[in-house]
Amino acid sequence: MGHGIAQVFATQGHAVALLDVSEALLERAREGIRGSLERLEKKGLVPSGETKIILRRIATSTEWDAIREVELAVEAVTEDASVKRQIFGRLDELAPERAILASNTSSISITALGAATKRPERVVGMHFFNPVPLMSLVEVVRGERTSDGTVLAVAESAKRLGKTPVEVHDFPGFVSNRILLPMINEAIYALMEGVADRDSIDAVMRLGMGHPIGPLALADLIGLDVCLQILEVLHRDLGDPKYRPCPLLRRMVLAGRLGRKTDRGFYPYPKPTERVPSKNP
Question: Which of 23, 57, 68, 194 has its C-alpha lying 20 to 30 A from 212's C-alpha?
Answer without folding.
Answer: 194
